[in-house]
Design brief:
The radius of gyration is 23 Å and the shape is globular. Helix 4 runs antiparallel to helix 10. It is 22% helix and 13% strand. Strand 2 (32-33) and strand 3 (40-41) form a beta hairpin. The chain folds into 2 domains: 7-21 and 164-451, Transferase(Phosphotransferase) domain 1 (Transferase(Phosphotransferase), domain 1), CATH 1.10.510.10; 32-157, Phosphorylase Kinase, domain 1, CATH 3.30.200. The strands form 5 sheets. Strands 4-5-6-7-9-8 form a 6-stranded antiparallel sheet. A 3-stranded antiparallel sheet has the order 10-13-14. A two-stranded parallel sheet has the order 1-11. With 485 residues, the protein is an alpha+beta fold.
Amino acid sequence: MAARRGRALDPCWRGSVRRRAPAAPSLRPVNFVCRTCGSLSERPGRCREHGFILVEPPAAGQEASADPLLGEVVAGKYALVGVLGRGGFGTVYRAWQETLDRFVAVKIIRRSKARGGEVRERFLLEARAVARLHGPNIVTLHDFGETPDGRLYMVLELVDGRTLRHANPNSARVNADRVVSLALPILRALSEAHGHGLVHRDVKPSNLMLTLDDQGHETVKVLDFGVAKFLDPRDAAERVNTQSGFVIGTPKYISPEQAAGLDVGPPSDVFSVGVILYELLAGAPPYTGADWQATSEARIFAAAPALPEDVVASIELRAVIARSLERVVGDRYSAASPFAEALRTTPEFTRIAALGVGTGGFIPLSSAPPPLIDARDQSSEGRRLLSVDSGSDELAPPSRRRTLVWAAIGVAVLGVAVLALRRSPPDQAPLSSAPASLSALAPATASPPSAQPPPPTLPPPTPTVPPVPKKTPASKAPRAGIPYL
């Protein structure tokens, strides 16, 4: 019996996917306050006495926000009433759109960062990427523009929920049925992106938002297309967002070819999802190392380990995840769609479908609210604009960008660098060419998903009846914690 990896199955992740969630929490704050006279109102709007925009009162134990933009109206229609998160490049606000009487998320880049250069170009790129996508599992872009005083802004759907990282902060093992039910909406979103010529390149738990659909069932929305790759080489945006030899993404979840600084395609996102599913089942990721360099090195030169023997999962599901984690691109699923089709052949999906719940049931969300500000992003301009999430799936520190040296005969120096919105210093510039021994990792010329060999035929599963869960009270979902930056 293999040594047990990870933590025991957490009680909050147990149970049948039949369980329905309680009603989705309101996206509206409890009340609003005038910062001049302190008068309260249950509805957003303007103070009757002073005419100022009413804003959210500070949380208990916090001082009133000194944010100069609170109470301002962007583009004449988005009143900034609260702060959802801050980062080195800007701030995400909760805003009230009076004409439609709804709340939205408004991401605003600081003027000093929006005046030119890569930050501006990448912000424009993210807007273009999200604007192409309209699926139910992708955050909707409502508006985009620039204020008269030179601030770039993006208006996004405000999603109530928690990231997967916050919902399972201790990497508890998750029931295999639940893992499949989580995977399908993620792959649906990525399939939408791949179909529109986009590769996400940073799929990780803190970019996956657990929320509820219109029927009150759990679903997932994929966030943050800030480092997406445009597959069409003629697209001008792709020249902005890709530098040869630079590693873009989070070391813990990126594919071998991405870690090697090679060109990537949809199979790279497939690998990232495979890592997430493996981690949910085993309670630990397939690759670990003393630091981000060792972690990247492991996935480049070693095959992914099999799921531990004590993980309760069908042979079919184990085979699907193993294929998603193949080191060689051509051995992996060609895109998100065939990966999802393979998951639908597993006994786990058969049980989910028999319950008639669709993508799955409700995962109780942790009652502890996420930190408003991620301190890691306060002084680092080398990371993405912000992740309000405080999980461990962070980008490698820019100050530690160094090249990996593999001391083996016939293997050249491999440049590994973390995503940086600024270039590396001249003495740390990564190599633009990859070692010959890694040539098998590079994706071949783009081919339609139909060219991918079909998944191996497996014997039909023995019908099983899902256990009746013990009733446990669902945790009350907190206010939205949204890593939009």
